[in-house]
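WARN retry 2 of 3 for item q-0093 after timeout on previous attempt; input resubmitted unchanged.
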Amino acid sequence: MDKEIILTPEGRQKLVDELEWREGEKHAEIIVAIKEAREQGDLSENAEYDAAKEEEAQNAARIAEIRKILSTAKLAEATTGRATIVSIGSTVEVSNEKGKKSSYTIVGTTETDSLSNRISNESPVGAALIGAKIGETVEYVTPSGKTRTLKVEKISR
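OK item q-0093 returned
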């Protein structure tokens, strides 16, 4: 059985946009590259043709993956008003044991982006924060096995 995928509305839209691009503009570029490579003659030793066909296969695989995600993913429920409990789609301001503040947005596994502090609900920090309320302290275990704590300072959508 496949693992359940949860998407925020923004994450779902990004996938819809990527699918549209891959089926349209990207597909057209690949077709042109294949046509140009074919015009060079002998396909048995044509590196450009092989590369274009490989790119076509990768694009088709990603299209299939996106379609599957979009057809099976659960959309994270939007909350209205002030957020009081951390859930997928929440942006959480936390402080660590030393008082250093950080902010994370909790997203589904397909939307993670560590450079933008978008962490998965399945990551150690994300899993610990899900369900927490303002003022609560949560514990999580780092990949190196150390237990750390975070205090929830603020929750927003």
